[in-house]
Amino acid sequence: MNYLTAKYLLGAAKLAQLPPDEGIEVAFAGRSNAGKSSALNTLTQQKSLARTSKTPGRTQLINVFTLDEDRRLIDLPGYGYAKVPEAMKLQWQEELSRYLQQRQCLRGLVLLMDIRHFLKDSDQDMLAWAAEVGLPVHCLLSKADKLKQGAKSKAVLQCKKAVKELHPTATVQAFSSLKREGLDQLYKILDGWYES
Ligand code: GDP
């Protein structure tokens, strides 16, 4: 698959505004600030495909990028930001769970988590929702450049163990957009989903 040709298609404020539920989608999700936009930019080698500085609390959008006629990348709104009003948080939680559980063309979810703070409550929710419907998940432990090799390996192992409890088939890897570390491993997982 060629990820370098990704193009912005639309921003959907509601699930109803998404393109028809056809073809293949892979979604990226994570808490705000987890490094999701940076990972999408690194993956597609486009500096500002997904904007890396966003205003927390603004109207949240599901951003849709096309890879080719049948394949799309989905950038789900960052969750867990403390300053967002409770009612809005709940509403987005419902939208996210509905997207994960009802979208037929969704083949996989990439879950971004800071390697130093993984599996917060909201990440656990995402994994549990995905597990309920048998949706494959690949966890990217982001900002891996922040840890030394030993601590990094330990974090990956710890995370693998904890993730298994919530989603038995989910996979985990260390990733750094800054150092472009873990990119080949990520491409392999995505190729598997897009070409299945
Ligand atoms: P998002 O809110 O999940 O889209 O997160 P961003 O991609 O905007 O990143 C949040 C912050 O983490 C920004 O200050 C980024 O520069 C930083 N960041 C993202 N990826 C990395 C990485 O691989 N290494 C380091 N050191 N910082 C990163």
Automatic annotation (TrEMBL):
Listed Pfam families: MMR_HSR1
One GO MF term attached to the UniProt entry: metal ion binding
Cited InterPro entries: G_ENGB_dom (IPR030393), GTP-bd (IPR006073), GTP-bd_ribosome_bio_YsxC (IPR019987), P-loop_NTPase (IPR027417)
GO BP annotation list: division septum assembly
Keyword hit for Cell division: yes
Keywords on record: Cell cycle, Cell division, GTP-binding, Magnesium, Metal-binding, Nucleotide-binding, Septation
A cellular component annotation (GO) from this entry: cytosol
Family under the similarity heading: Belongs to the TRAFAC class TrmE-Era-EngA-EngB-Septin-like GTPase superfamily. EngB GTPase family.
PANTHER family recorded: ENGB-TYPE G DOMAIN-CONTAINING PROTEIN (PTHR11649:SF13), MSS1/TRME-RELATED GTP-BINDING PROTEIN (PTHR11649)
NCBIfam families: GTPase_YsxC
UniProt cross-references to HAMAP family, sorted A to Z: GTPase_EngB
Protein name as annotated: Probable GTP-binding protein EngB
Organism: Kangiella profundi
